[in-house]
Amino acid sequence: MTQQSTRVAGKVALISGAAQGMGASHARTLVEHGAQVVIGDLAQEQGRELAHELGADNALFVHLDVTDYDSWVAAVAATVQQFGRLDVLVNNAGIFTRGSVEEASVEDFKRTIDIDLTGNFLGMKAAVPALKDAGGGSIINISSIAGLVGFKNRAAYSAAKWGVQGLTKTSAMDLGEYNIRVNSVHPGSVRTPMTAGLKRGFGQVPLGRDADVQEISNIVLFLASDESSFVTGGAYAIDGGETAGNNLRTDA
Ligand SMILES: NC(=O)c1ccc[n+]([C@@H]2O[C@H](COP(=O)([O-])OP(=O)(O)OC[C@H]3O[C@@H](n4cnc5c(N)ncnc54)[C@H](O)[C@@H]3O)[C@@H](O)[C@H]2O)c1
Question: What is 12-238's CATH number?
Answer without folding.
Answer: 3.40.50.720
